[in-house]
Design goal:
Blueprint (H helix, E strand, L loop, with lengths): L1 E9 L5 H11 L3 E7 L2 E7 L2 H13 L6 E10 L7 E3 L20 H7 L43 H8 L20 E5 L4 E3 L2 H13 L4 E4 L4 E6 L3 H11 L7 E3 L3 H5 L6 H7 L6 E5 L9 H4 L5 E5 L4 H10 L3 E5 L11 H7 L6 E5 L11 E4 L6 E5 L19 E3 L9 E3 L5 E2 L9 H17 L6 E5 L5 H13 L2 E5 L1 H12 L9 E11 L5 E10 L2 E7 L3 E2 L5 H4 L1 H8 L5 H5 L4 H13 L3 E2 L2 H11 L11 H7 L24 H13 L4 H23 L3 E5 L6 H11 L4 E4 L10 H13 L3
Parallel strand pairs: 2-5, 8-14, 10-12, 11-15, 17-20, 20-21, 22-27, 27-28
Antiparallel strand pairs: 1-3, 1-4, 2-3, 6-7, 6-14, 8-9, 9-13, 10-13, 11-12, 15-16, 17-18, 18-19, 22-23, 23-24, 25-26
Helix pairs in contact: 5-10, 14-24, 16-19, 19-20, 19-21, 21-22, 22-23
Length: about 750
């Protein structure tokens, strides 16, 4: 009998066809395997029992970096095959498969890099079927060499022999190359003058430069990184000044897990993430640090480090030579997107980097490094930035839709969601659309999705805020293409994102949605950010929110926490406010407040007010700085010792002003700052459960940037563990990166159902 097996999911560029080939030989099956626009297609001849065993092995024990989403087997008219073979991909329609993200260097390739007698000794672009860049260098699918930027590098006889040998782990490895036929490195100064040739000479020269305190722009496999000695305070200070990044923490690259563990404590969950195929930056506590890093220069005011391990051959060789940790931050000027080509790098980074390490492999999809954190008590994973290693797939449950839908997300932390077939795609983090270069990358990403899937969206979803550039661009596309457009309110999109992740839209029990962030345009024209919703039976209703307070000075309020304090000021604060503003400025703002009609319920701005009140931060140099600094003051806490600064009112409103008034009183009584912050977070957590009890809701879902606060998340889990079922974002970030996904989930599950 002849059977046709279709396997869909993340199954291209992961060694699936070689795996099928070897498994077929094991079962003595004849047939073929190929990639097409749907996934992996297998035709197999054998008796029923043999085919069944073959099918079970393929679907239950796939390659470790594969993710099977769906599979099926069907009988076909009898076909004749002479043995079993891998046949070239045949694209017969539009793409309908999950795409392939970048994978970290595998252990076997890492060993080859350092084996003197191996022909790939010191070759920085060593890969195999199980590791290496994928999405970064891919132009279209199915995943074949001709569809990647490796196409211009013709395999030498030795690489070709590996590629065609079923027993070799590079059998049908589309990124296969070596020093003879592969990618070339070259080192230059800021003026473009080449300084060294050959990987060994180049890396030794880079080490010398780093030890001299120089800054190197290194083109990695997903974009440029700016690197310097993480133990050299002057080099770090220079990098901050040139990059225009005064305080935001820098990521630190360690040579190995062993080296990292010698300097700081790493939990089992953190370790697993650090050595995963995604290999993100992991935020870890700096408590008990034993190394020589200049901590206050790397992460000013913070007791945490963003650390990562080498994920490419290039970084592996760099760290082998340097031996000590280095700064490895995105190659850009602060606020602009990561740079990935030589021309842009030499223009934009010429005044930042002293030297450049380039290579001649083009990068089609530049990506920042992803960032994750684990909460200290419960080790709950929080994604801060979802990019390299995760994008562009979404692996959570998706609803069925016959329409092609594109969601354009928010304005900050921009992402795009596209649903053109049986799968949902979520772009890498793109950045803040206020920046011209980010907006260009955003529009390019939209065009790239349309081209890749050969499909224009039939529905475009945008945020309700009329001034968001994503909204304005979406409306331009609607007019250009003549397609439908729907607005989704910002916080409802956040709620829909977490409901969608946990498959709760068809849940019979009502769900309380707690959506807290910095800003979002509300249905009543005010600035929301401290919202409570109830979802039940295809309806989402706002049921409570924090007391409104004045929104003053527009976007400046998010950059200056002292403005939030001014807006929430209570009696007795005059002296404190006069210490933060000159008299003329204070008079102007007070006049504005008297005439102001725009209000906000933002918990993000409430955090800012508390940070300013406690003397922690009056001006944010990066988004969320005040809240991040506040979290650093908390060590171990006992929930039983925490006190609440406010309770829900009889009418159900949440006591924004009471919280500030009571914290001001605590400061006056000399209560330690760490205790006040801990009590503030406990107050917020306690208020959530007060609302839940009042509404008689046991299922609670959380989203919005405030829920990046690890201590708050731990408190929620500790308070609610016995009586409530809690849902947090798990495959995506709780911040505005999830707006695009939430818009799509809201539309398919709610708007279409009306």
């Amino acid at each position: 009998m002849t059977s046709k097996i279709i396997i869909q999911g993340q199954v291209q560029g992961v060694g699936f066809r070689p795996f099928v080939y070897v498994t077929a030989r094991k079962y003595q099956i004849t047939g073929t395997v190929s990639n097409n626009e749907e996934g992996v297609i297998v035709f197999a001849n054998g008796n029923r029992e043999t085919i069944e065993g073959f099918y079970q092995e393929l679907t239950q024990y796939p390659p470790k970096v594969a993710r099977i989403k769906a599979h099926r087997i069907e009988e076909m008219p009898a076909m004749f095959f002479d043995g079993f073979s891998i046949v070239p991909s045949q694209k017969g329609g539009k793409l309908n498969l999950q795409l392939t993200p970048d994978f970290a260097l595998c252990d076997t390739c890492r060993e080859e890099l350092l084996m003197v007698k191996n022909r790939r000794y010191y070759y920085p672009f060593t890969t195999c079927t199980y590791c290496g860049p994928r999405w970064a260098i891919t132009n279209t699918f199915p995943f074949e060499r001709a569809h990647t930027n490796l196409y211009s590098f013709h395999m030498c006889p030795a690489c070709q022999e590996e590629y065609t040998n079923p027993l070799d782990r590079r059998f049908h490895s589309q990124t296969n190359s070596c020093p003879t036929c592969g990618i070339t490195l070259f080192l230059s100064d800021a003026k473009g003058n080449e300084l060294a040739a050959g990987p060994q000479e180049i890396f030794k020269k880079i080490v010398a430069l780093i030890r001299e305190g120089k800054i190197i722009a290194i083109k990695n496999t997903s974009g440029y990184l700016l690197c310097c000695d993480a133990q050299n305070a002057m080099a770090i200070k220079t990098l901050r000044e040139r990059k225009r990044r005064p305080k935001k923490p820098f990521a630190i690259l360690y040579a190995s897990l062993k080296q990292l563990q010698e300097e700081v404590s790493v939990s089992a969950a953190q370790e697993a993430e650090l050595i995963s195929s995604e290999r993100p930056i992991v935020l870890i506590s700096g408590t008990g640090f034993k190394g020589r890093l200049v901590l206050d220069a790397l992460a000013p005011g913070l007791n945490q480090l963003g650390v990562m391990l080498p994920y490419s051959g290039l970084l592996e060789l760099l760290m082998k030579e340097v031996e000590t940790p280095v700064v490895a931050t995105s190659g850009n000027i602060h606020g602009s997107p990561i740079i990935s080509n030589l021309e842009d790098a030499q223009i934009s980074l010429a005044k930042v980097a002293d030297y450049f390490l380039h290579h001649n492999l083009d990068i089609s999809n530049a990506q920042d490094d992803s960032v994750v954190k684990f909460t200290p008590k419960f080790q709950q994973k929080i994604i801060y930035r979802r990019s390299r290693g995760y994008a562009p797939n979404y692996f959570g449950p998706i609803p069925f839709s016959s329409e092609k839908i594109m969601a354009l997300g928010g304005h900050l932390k921009s992402t795009i969601a596209f649903y053109p077939n049986d799968f949902l795609y979520l772009s890498q983090y793109l950045g803040h659309l206020d920046h011209y270069e980010v907006f260009n990358r955003f529009t390019d990403a939209v065009a790239a999705f349309v081209q890749l899937f050969e499909a224009r969206p039939e529905v475009i979803l945008v945020d309700k805020h009329p001034a968001y550039l994503s909204t304005q661009y979406g409306r331009q596309l609607v007019k250009k293409w003549g397609v439908a457009c729907h607005e989704v309110q910002h916080h409802k999109a956040h709620f829909a994102a977490v409901l969608g992740e946990h498959h709760l839209f068809d849940h019979n029990t009502p769900v309380l949605g707690v959506i807290w962030d910095g800003t979002g345009y509300g249905d009543d024209g005010q600035i929301w950010g401290g919202e409570f919703f109830c979802y039940q039976q295809k309806k989402m209703e706002r049921i409570a929110h924090f007391d409104y307070f004045d929104w003053v000075a527009g976007d400046k309020m998010a950059k200056e926490p002292k403005l939030s304090l001014l807006s929430l000021a209570c009696d007795g604060m005059d002296e404190l406010l006069e210490s933060k503003f000159d008299s003329r400025t204070l008079d102007i703002y007070r006049t504005l407040l008297q005439k102001n009609s725009l209000k906000t319920s933002s918990v993000g701005r409430l955090f800012d007010a508390v940070a300013s009140l406690l003397g922690i931060c009056d001006t944010n140099t990066y988004e969320g700085e005040a809240a991040i600094l506040m979290e650093q003051y908390i060590g171990a806490y006992q929930l039983s010792n925490c006190k609440a600064y406010g309770v829900i009112s009889e009418t159900g409103t949440l006591p924004t002003f009471d919280i500030i008034r009571n914290i001001f009183s605590a400061v006056g009584r000399g209560v330690p700052r760490d205790a006040i912050i801990c009590d503030f977070l406990f107050t917020l957590a306690n208020l959530i459960f007060q609302v839940a009890r009042r509404q008689r809701l046991r299922h609670i879902a959380f989203s919005g940037g405030v829920f990046q606060n690890a201590v708050l998340v731990d408190m929620l889990k500790e308070i609610g563990k016995d009586d409530y079922i809690l849902y947090f974002n798990r495959n995506i970030s709780p911040n505005d990166e999830n707006i695009a996904l939430g818009q799509l989930m809201y539309y398919v599950n709610l708007i279409k159902q009306q």
